[in-house]
Design brief:
The chain is mainly beta. It has one domain (30-137). Helix content is 3%, strand content 53%. The chain is built from one helix and nine strands, in the order H-E-E-E-E-E-E-E-E-E. It has one helix at 8-11; strands at residues 32-37, 40-44, 49-53, 62-65, 68-72, 77-79, 87-108, 113-133, 136-137. Strands 3, 4, 7, 8 and 9 form a five-stranded antiparallel β-sheet that branches. Strands 2-1-5-6 form a four-stranded antiparallel β-sheet, with no helix packed on it. Strand 1 (32-37) and strand 2 (40-44) form a beta hairpin. The protein is elongated. It starts with 7 loop residues before the first helix and ends with a strand. 12% of the residues are buried. The model has no long low-confidence stretch (mean pLDDT 85).
């Protein structure tokens, strides 16, 4: 005779399913915009800062970018062709900085040719203050 082992789950009474919490309105990031600045595309959200290539602006001044490629808010997503009409992103210049040092080292083996160069990118730290579509702020 072989006996099958019992586990506590087999002997415990069946538990009633507990009610699940209400789902969140929308999972993921809040409103955002994808903006083209200095030949690159940046994901910008309100009240967040980021470093972009050096802007010709004074510290504590505001800069407005109108090259907005995409805007996402509670209503949905607006995709530009190539830019979203009437959309602007307002930035506040926090500081002018320099990026990390990058070393460029070139060597030709067996020729005794070596060249060493360093580079630090000039950056501007900005704070995204508002994302506007048609004159109305989405955040």
């Amino acid at each position: 005779m072989s006996a099958t082992p019992t586990t506590p789950a087999d002997t415990a009474p069946a538990a009633s399913p507990s009610p699940s919490p209400a789902p969140a309105a929308e999972a993921g990031p809040g409103p955002y915009a994808i903006v083209e600045a200095s030949g690159q595309q940046f994901w910008m959200q309100p009240d967040r800062y980021l470093d972009i290539d050096r802007l010709n602006a004074e510290v504590d001044s505001t800069v407005s970018l109108d090259t907005v490629l995409l805007v996402r808010d509670a209503k949905g997503t607006s995709l530009g062709a190539p830019y979203v009409k009437g959309a602007t992103v307002t930035l506040k210049v926090l500081a002018h900085r320099r990026g990390p040092k990058v070393i460029v080292y070139k060597m030709r083996p067996k020729k005794k040719t070596r060249r060493k160069n360093g580079h630090r990118q000039e950056l501007t730290r900005v704070l995204v203050t508002a994302i506007e579509v048609g004159g109305k702020a989405i955040a």
